[in-house]
Amino acid sequence: MKGTENRLNLRYGTRLENFDFMHSKPANQFFRGHISEIKFWKGIIEEFNLKVAVSELKKIVRENFKEIDGTRDIIEKLKKNGYKLGLLSNQAREWVDYCEKQYDFHKLFNSRMYSFEISVCKPEKRGYNLIMGKLKAKPEECLFIDDYDVNLTPAKKLGLATLQFENSEKLRRDLRKLDIKL
């Protein structure tokens, strides 16, 4: 999702910053599975007074969904080496469906949990507890990796080790420092 607001600003002269629209009321409803993508975008258009068609917004956000170079290789190696892998993601059904068709990443994880399925978004502690339960893992057995530091804080408070994701090379180095086999 990072960079979507930059694309909007460049193409349409909007002044969205710091992931503004992703922290809005429509986003909260969308990621919890309470509204459709069309209702989400209509709410964003209204809230931020955008002069953009819903179809354009849907296109722009999908253009921004890219697999980050090197991450698939890391995930595959971790899985091959016997680590149980869970995915806890603030995501909407339509976007997960799109990404699954494009990248087929669901099979990389032992368990997946999306906010739209559980009506809980990170950084709410309940989501972390739910994914640990699904993985049958204790906090001290877990490493939580996320690109947003705000999502790391509750994980730390629950007793999980954490890493902030910046890029795949840094993640490789960070995992090696923790003696995690790749």
Features:
mainly alpha, two-stranded parallel sheet, 2 domains, 182 residues, globular, 10 helices, Rossmann fold
Structure description:
Helix 2 (25-31) packs antiparallel against helix 3 (37-48). The chain contains ten helices and four strands, in the order αααααβαβααβαβα. The chain has two domains: 4-64, no CATH class; 71-177, HAD superfamily/HAD-like (Rossmann fold), CATH 3.40.50.1000. The longest helix is centred in the first third of the chain and has 12 residues, at 37-48. Helices cover 52% and strands 9% of the residues. It is globular and about 50 Å long. The protein is mainly alpha-helical and 182 residues long.
Global shape? globular
Which CATH class of the largest domain? Alpha Beta
On the 0-100 scale, what is the average pLDDT? 93
Number of strands: 4
Gyration radius, in Å:
17 Å
Largest sheet: 2 strands, parallel
Q: Please indicate the count of domains.
A: 2
What is the string of helix and strand elements? Answer: HHHHHEHEHHEHEH
